[in-house]
Design a protein that fits this description.
The complex is a heterodimer of chains A (312) and B (287). By secondary structure, chain A is mainly alpha-helical. Chain A contains 13 helices and 2 strands; from the N terminus they run αββαααααααααααα. The chains are: A mainly alpha (312), B mainly alpha (287).
Chain lengths: 312, 287
C-alpha cells in the first residue's frame, strides 16, 4: 500500500484451479473476452515495460530513453562500482533492519493484546489501524512538525528534561533512523490489521489445552499464537521487507537523500536518475537490480512457507 | 466500533486468562501505544487550528477557533482542484479495478477455455514485479499516448490488479457448482449468470476491495508525481508535496492544515471500514 503501495504481493500462487464449469461444456473463447481488460492492461503496463526495462538496462540511452548502443552489462558495472550506489544499497539494508523487526514486533504485541475480549478494545483497534489510512506525504508532514529543529515539539520535550536537541533530519548520523521511525509508524497499521485477523481466527481449543498445562502469557504467545499464525506472520514479514525496499516518498518529502547522502535509498536514486538526471539506461539497470532482490525475497518466502510454516 | 464480541467469559484469540495484574498491564501497554501512535495525528490537527505566532512561541494548542491555516492552504495551492482530481482518480480507478478483476476472476472460475492455467500463472507472476521497476517505461508509454496530465494517464496503469483477481477467484470458487447448473437449466446466459448470481454473491469481497483500492489510489505518491506536470490532474498528495517544498519549514500551521485535508477521507474510511479491511486482508494473507 503505496503508501509505498504495499499491495499484498507474493501470495503463494500454487493453488490448483478447481473449475466450476459444467462438465462436458465446450471450451469457448468467451473466457478471453472476460479476461481481456485485465490481460490488456497487464500486457501494456506490466509485461511490456518489464521486458523493455531489461533491454534498456543493456543499452546506452538518450535523455528521452531512446536506445543508442548495446553496452552489455556496463550499466550494472558502473552502478556497482559507484560508491554512491553502494552506499544506497547499504542505506537500504540498514533501513530494512531498522524498520522491519520493529514493525512486526510492535504490531504483533498490539494485535495479541487487542484480540482479547475486553471493554474498550474497539477504540484501540481503530487507533492502531489508523496509520494505514495515512499517506506517505501526510505522514512526512505530520512528523516534520514533530522533528523540526526550530520549534519541533520533540526537541522541546527533550530540552525540558535538560537534554540537548537532536537534528532529527539534518544530522547525518540520525536522519536515516528518523525516517525509519516514521516508516515503522506508518506500517504498523497494516501489519497490525492482518495479524489481528489471524489471531482472532485461532480456535479457542488450542488455548484451553495450554491452560491445563498452566502456561503463562509469553508461553502461550510463543508456543500457541506465533506458530498458529505463522503463515500470516510470514506474509507480513514479506510485504514489510518488500515495502521497505520500495520506500521513496518519505525521502522525497523530507531529506532528498541528504544530509551527505545518508538517506539515499535505492528507489530514490532510481527516481533521480530517471526523472531528474535522465540517465534512463542506468535507471533501468537499477530497476532490474531491485526486481532481482524482490524476486529472491519472494522466492525464499514462498519456499519457507511451503516447508516450514504451520497451517491450521 | 463494528467488532462483534464473543460474549463468553473466556478471552478470545490471544487466550489470555485475565488476571488482575494482566489486565492492568494490558491497558497500560495499550494506552501508551495509543498515545504514541495517535500523537502525530492529533498534534498536527491541533497545530492546524493554531496561529503561527503561537506555534513559534511554543503554544501548540489553539486558544480559539482559528481557521486561517486552512484558508491559507487553499490559497497557497489549488487544494479544491487537487481534491476533485483525487476523488475522480480514486473513484474511477477503484471502480475499474473492481470491474476488471471481477470479470477476470469469473472467466478463471466459471468459463472453460484453453490456456487458463498458463494465464492464471502469468497473472500471479506479475505480483513479483514492483511498480517502481515499471515506472520509467510506463512514463514513456503514457507520454507517447498523450496522457500526461490526464485522469486516464493517472488511472490506466493500475486498473488491472492481481490481488483483486486473486481475492475474487477465492470467493467465486466457494459458489456451489449446483447454482451454475441450475442457471444453465433456467436458460441464463453466461453474462446473466455473472450479473444476477455471481456479482451479488461476492459483494463482501467487493466492499473490502473497494475500501482497499480507494486507500491505495488516494494515497499513491510515485506515479502521480511522475505522470503530472501541472495542476490540471495533479492529486492532493502531490499538491501537499508542492506545498511542503515551498512552505515546509516555515508555515507550520498551514502545512498541518494541508496534511489534515489530505488525510480526512482515508481516515474516515479506516474508521468505518476497519473490520471489513481486516477480514479481507486476513483472507488474502492466509489463502
Amino acid at each position: 500500500m503505496s503508501k509505498h503501495s504495499v499491495a499484498p504481493k507474493a501470495v503463494p500462487a500454487a493453488t490448483a484451479v478447481p473449475p466450476r464449469e459444467a462438465p462436458g461444456e465446450r471450451r469457448t473463447l468467451a473466457g478471453w473476452v472476460y479476461l481481456l481488460p485485465s490481460v490488456a492492461i497487464f500486457a501494456i503496463f506490466v509485461i511490456y515495460p518489464f521486458g523493455r526495462t531489461i533491454i534498456t538496462s543493456l543499452f546506452a540511452t538518450t535523455p528521452a530513453g531512446g536506445l543508442t548502443q548495446f553496452i552489455g552489462i556496463d550499466n550494472f558495472v558502473t552502478l556497482l562500482t559507484d560508491p554512491l550506489y553502494t552506499q544506497a544499497i547499504v542505506n537500504t539494508l540498514v533501513y530494512v533492519l531498522l524498520t522491519v523487526p520493529a514493525t512486526i514486533v510492535i504490531a504483533l504485541l498490539l494485535a495479541v493484546l487487542t484480540a482479547q475480549d475486553l471493554p474498550g478494545m474497539g477504540v484501540f483497534r481503530t487507533i492502531f489501524s489508523a496509520t494505514m489510512g495515512i499517506s506517505v506525504a501526510a505522514a512526512a508532514v505530520f512528523w516534520n512538525l514533530l522533528f523540526n529543529a526550530n520549534s519541533g515539539v520533540l526537541n522541546r520535550i527533550i530540552e525540558f528534561f535538560g537534554g540537548e536537541g537532536v537534528g532529527w533530519l539534518i544530522d547525518q548520523n540520525v536522519a536515516l533512523l528518523s525516517v525509519s521511525i516514521i516508516s515503522i509508524w506508518m506500517n504498523i497499521g497494516m501489519a497490525y490489521l492482518i495479524l489481528l485477523g489471524a489471531i482472532k481466527s485461532i480456535d479457542d481449543s488450542y488455548y484451553e489445552s495450554v491452560e491445563i498445562v498452566g502456561g503463562g502469557f509469553w508461553y502461550r504467545l510463543r508456543r500457541v499464537t506465533v506458530p498458529l499464525i505463522s503463515p500470516s506472520l510470514f506474509f507480513v514479514l514479506t510485504i514489510t521487507v518488500i515495502g521497505a525496499f520500495q520506500s521513496f516518498g518519505l525521502i522525497d518529502m523530507l531529506t532528498q537523500g541528504g544530509p551527505n547522502n545518508a538517506t539515499v535509498l535505492l528507489i530514490y536514486r532510481l527516481y533521480r536518475d530517471a526523472f531528474v538526471n535522465f540517465r534512463i539506461g542506468s535507471a533501468s539497470a537499477q530497476g532490474v537490480i531491485l526486481f532481482a532482490v524482490i524476486f529472491v525475497i519472494s522466492y525464499i518466502q514462498t519456499k519457507l512457507t511451503e516447508d516450514k510454516v504451520t497451517y491450521q | 466500533m463494528p467488532f462483534s464480541k464473543k460474549s463468553s467469559g473466556r478471552v478470545a484469540g490471544s487466550g489470555l486468562r485475565t488476571s488482575k495484574s494482566g489486565l492492568v498491564a494490558t491497558y497500560a501497554v495499550l494506552t501508551i501505544a495509543a498515545v504514541a501512535i495517535g500523537f502525530p495525528i492529533l498534534f498536527s490537527i491541533s497545530l492546524s487550528f493554531t496561529p503561527l505566532e503561537d506555534i513559534i512561541n511554543g503554544v501548540f494548542i489553539p486558544t480559539s477557533l482559528f481557521l486561517d491555516n486552512y484558508v491559507n492552504a487553499f490559497e497557497a495551492q489549488p487544494f479544491a482542484q487537487f481534491i476533485v482530481n483525487s476523488v475522480v482518480v480514486g473513484v474511477a480507478g477503484t471502480a475499474l479495478q473492481i470491474l476488471f478483476s471481477m470479470l477476470a476472476a469469473y472467466a478463471l472460475v466459471f468459463i472453460p477455455f484453453g490456456g487458463k492455467r498458463i494465464i492464471f500463472l502469468v497473472i500471479m507472476a506479475t505480483m513479483m514485479i514492483p511498480a517502481e521497476v515499471l515506472v520509467v517505461t510506463n512514463f514513456q508509454t503514457i507520454r507517447a499516448m498523450g496522457l500526461i496530465d490526464t485522469y486516464a494517464g493517472l488511472i490506466l496503469p493500475g486498473v488491472a490488479t492481481t490481488f483483486g483477481i486473486f481475492l475474487y477467484r477465492q470467493n467465486m470458487m466457494q459458489i456451489p457448482s449446483e447454482l451454475k447448473e441450475a442457471a444453465d437449466v433456467a436458460g441464463l446466459s453466461r453474462f446473466q449468470f455473472f450479473v444476477r448470481v455471481v456479482v451479488p454473491m461476492v459483494m463482501n469481497t467487493t466492499v473490502t476491495l473497494a475500501i482497499y483500492f480507494f486507500l491505495v489510489t488516494w494515497n499513491a505518491y510515485l506515479w502521480p508525481l511522475v505522470s503530472t506536470t501541472n495542476n490540471t490532474a495533479r492529486t492532493v498528495q502531490i499538491g501537499l508535496r508542492t506545498l511542503n517544498s515551498s512552505e515546509g519549514l516555515s508555515d507550520f500551521g498551514m502545512m498541518a492544515a494541508g496534511a489534515v485535508i489530505t488525510s480526512i477521507p482515508t481516515l474516515l474510511l479506516i474508521f468505518f471500514g476497519q473490520k471489513r479491511l481486516q477480514e479481507g486482508m486476513t483472507k488474502g494473507a492466509l489463502k
